[in-house]
Amino acid sequence: MDRRIYSGANVPRGPAITIEHEGESLRAYEGEPLAVALHAAGVVVLGRSIKYHRPRGAFCLAGHCGACLMRVGDVPNLRACQLPCTDGLATQGQNAFPTTDLDVLAATDWLFPGGLDHHTLMTGSKVMNRVMQRVVRKLSGLGKLPARPAEAFPAVVERDVDVVVVGGGPAGLAAARAAAEAGRRTLLLDEQDELGGSLLDTPGLGRDEAARRAREVAAAGVDVSTQTTLVAFFPEEDVLAAVTPAGLLRVVARRYVYATGAHDVNALFVDNDRPGILAARAVARLLLRHGVAPGDAVAIAGDAPTAEPLAGALAAAGIAFERCARPERARGRKQVEALDVDGARLACDVVAVAEMPAPASEAPRTHGVHVELRPAGGGFAVVVDGNGRTSVPGVYACGDVTGYVGPAAAAAQGAAAGANAARTL
Amino acid sequence: MTRVIICRCEDVTLADVEHAVAKGYRDIEEVKRYTGFGTGPCQGKECVALVALALARATGTPPADIEPFTSRPPLTPTPLKFFVNDPSAEEEP
Amino acid sequence: MTPIPERAELCVVGGGVIGLAVAYNCARRGLRDVVVLDKSYLAAGASGRNGGGVRQQWSTELNVRLMRESVALCKDFATELGVNVWFRQGGYLFLSRFPRETERLEKNVRLQNRLGVPTEMLTPAEAREIVPELDAGGFHAACYNSTDGVLFPWPFLWGYAQGAAKLGVQIFTHTAVDAIDVVDGGGFVVRTPRGALRARRVLNASGAWSPEVARLVGVHLPDYPIRHEICSSEPLKPFLKPMVSVLGSGLYFSQSMRGEIVGGVTLRDHHPTLAMGSRLRFLATYARQVTRIMPILGDIKILRAWAGPYDITEDGNPIVGEVEARPGFFLCCGFMGHGFMMAPVIGRLYAELLTGGPKHEIFERWTLERFSRPGGIEREDFIIG
Known about the structure:
The structure holds 3 protein chains of 3 kinds. Chain B is mainly alpha-helical.
């Protein structure tokens, strides 16, 4: 199976290569994320869950959730959506015996229909309790220990800037540009390999618009570090630590601007974790950024603002889809085959969950900023004033991390927050 | 088996959260410890808001009165090797 | 807000493992009207923040004997209290780099063997048979006791809390003690935002916060809190049997029943603080030291780091018993980060004291007054991790 439908300038692909997934050779393209290459080849069950051995497949395709962990080469528990394919890459689903597809330990799921309160499990008899503990120890954990020690200990890079902007989506790009145009030494960190964030997955904006704004940012003199994931801000040491392919990055800054966006969250319905059930933005990402048809029949479940753009993109690509309310239940034993929704059965091989994304506030929270749980805003939103100022002096936030606002409003907020951060220096 | 999964990393269900509340664990930090939600590889990125809203419903607490659990480093699972050469590392005495 | 009762026979301040263990054991021995107050949620302090190690390798006879009993109680905890604490006896492996450290280990092993604890001295090569991934280069010797182990701290608290509640103990979380009035003619009035409680006796089991609580009744305590940082890795299939610890640096790590590598190390600052933030310096120090002795862990990902307060005393032993100058006010604090493993036995002994049972020697030797008595101190020097 090959679900790739686009090629050419909009979906730049490296040379065709071969990867080995559980002993089977699959075609991939160099640099394509592993989870995307597997989806394109029709592989959606990537591993088994830690407790009940339920089938697991990608959900957010953005490196945030823990759904797509695999063993890759010698290393366990790697996010398949963040791992670029290379020729000969060997991959393996985890926590499954003998194979990910046919995992006999999935019996755990059926042994405890009412849930498994491991706190009180078999506490009635000393003998049974000891036997149970031995079994649990044997079954515990997810990935196996690496096959060999790390090849090298990466270097440490120290940076000193006026303004550091975290997140290279519409808000962060605008903030970094504004701060740099005000003459401040500005560093922009982004976790993906190309700037743009949600722009990349928004029909009508996409890679071209992201590239245009990235050029403006570069022209303004912003220093950019991509593939950079945050460790945390450490208040007592006054350092923001991050990890880049080159090593540990220690940033000392006078102003912090968080434009970390929002994480995709799942809807609560029965068997909502079946592989093939992805976030709406992840489905858009498959199609728009990677040129992969998500499935033959897509159900867009829910009416968050992420639903409408996806519907447009699927229609434009000629992929069958239906929109529906939040489902009651998913059908399908290993991967989703249908939804029970509004009293009817809706057949589908991919579900795009359109729930309000949750503000990615965990990074600004390491500064101690005030957040507020807003059901309509998707989760714990950073509280800011009209200038993007948080409750902590010197710390700013803009875009979806302040409550989901979407790309256009995010850019306006970013420009204001970046300019204000620069002006107060 | 059919389950409503609220924390995918640790296989925690909505029923588990409600069960914890029924047992008297009503603080989000207590529910985290009792159910294990938010302690896996995503550290709550996908689930903390969902659990907080479920907790608000189950306990009748206004959402604005619920705080998230403490945000702990590292924000992304980070291999030990990246910290080894940090200049603040102390050698064995 | 539920009001607290007007009266109590015993008011325990601090819902950590020590306070709950004492309350549970008191109730089991028939004491009525026991109230436990905690200013936060259960497990918010050191009891919910430790690595779960339970060992019998100590350097004084008293501690070895006490911990032998604690281990026995841990083994039966799940069936007695109805809550799994996942106590796994994978042993404790201590490593020494220098001959003088090895001499300390040998001396302790002789003491432990005499008291029935089967600790053995090992060569570095023998240590590798227990932990094959260990880089034993640079080590001088090791000692190993297979009956030490690790458990999960949180359910331990819940077990005591549920067990105590079943026996009538009333536990109030999110209930800070603002003031304690000393009543003429005996007893106390404990004041909280949920109301005041008249208690005949008060037990200060508030760990790192115990000096603050003691100050409310005019008692000065010599213990003080320091921060200890710790972290947990991604879940891995079981491979590591014992808790491993390096004597000189205080590095320790074990694998939990969920598969995570949980470990910490002693940082060089020891100034008193109740701060519980995590530092990059901790992650860096732990990473450097743990990958040196376990190179295979270099690619293992840390999921989260946190900190908890150690409650430190000058001689490494706790402070227990009634305060001579303040009758009715009892102490159970200063556990040096080892309150967790000691709680089962301390809970039993303390309940005996409070219910007219035998008075164990710890209530003679580990009193507050020992610090001002010449020759009152016997130092415990095996304070690790």
